[in-house]
Amino acid sequence: MREKIGTVLVIDDNPANAHQLFALLGDDYDILVATRGADGIELAAAQSPDLILLDVVMPDLNGYEVCTRIKADARTADIPIIFVTARDDEDDEAHGLSLGAIDYLAKPLRPAIVRARIKNHIDLKRSRDLLQRLTTLDPLTGIDNRRRFDACLATEWGRAAREAHVLSLVMIDVDHFKRFNDRYGHAVGDLCLTAIAAALQGALLRPADVVARFGGEEFACVLPGTDLAGAAQLAERMRAAVEALSISHDGVAIAERVTISLGVAAAMPQSDAQARRLLEAADGALYEAKLAGRNCICIQQAAPPRAAPAAPPGAGGPQASATA
User: Fold this and answer.
1) Is 243 a catalytic site residue?
2) What is the model's pTM?
């Protein structure tokens, strides 16, 4: 069986049209089908296809409305959309392109043209994705960088505000890292940071969780839909994972090995507040962890514009504490 080279989502209320596209493309691509616009929007968000083939005339939401909603969602905005329709009027095509579609295929379809255009558009998308990914990677550690973290925090804050769910943040700092660099040299320090980044990444439990290098020896983790207790448990996994690396750090009284301190904060985002509140709370909790002796976790509930629930008890590794 030929290996599939991508995923194409077909949104069309006519099963015959979907069947025709499957016959044209099924040998090369995994084909997803939605016969309602609303279902297509949900499927695009859940499956992240490489490309969407979208009919214009549909009973619930027309193709233009579906395109508008897909482009308005950060999860799906970058998925290329091609309109496939019998409406080949110049104004219709111009309108579709103005909404963010990248191409317009008029029926009856010409198989060779359809295959060539889809392949070209998927190749272009993958090139753009690779370039975008390179701009959001930390070149030393290979995990996400500060730019990616800032974008992720802003996106998840907005989503949490819309959907009324909690958002947690973990700030992480390598204990006495300047001393480590002074003793072992910056080349060894770089290897140490790379190993720590891998340990932090390996501690994550869900694809939605993002850990990034915040700067220098600091890291940060965004945890959508995770409450304070859950975030504290994950922070402890991270703390233990780094300690388990057993990277020698002679002359440091904590454990004579490299350790990290972690600050955990959670908030119920509001549309009239800023993600900076959560970042400040996590940073404050990290400061408390360092005052508490390092190699531990402290937690803090970010203060929203309105009254927030009381923070649950502290959790985590040695000397963990809670702050108000």
Assistant:
1) no
2) 0.66
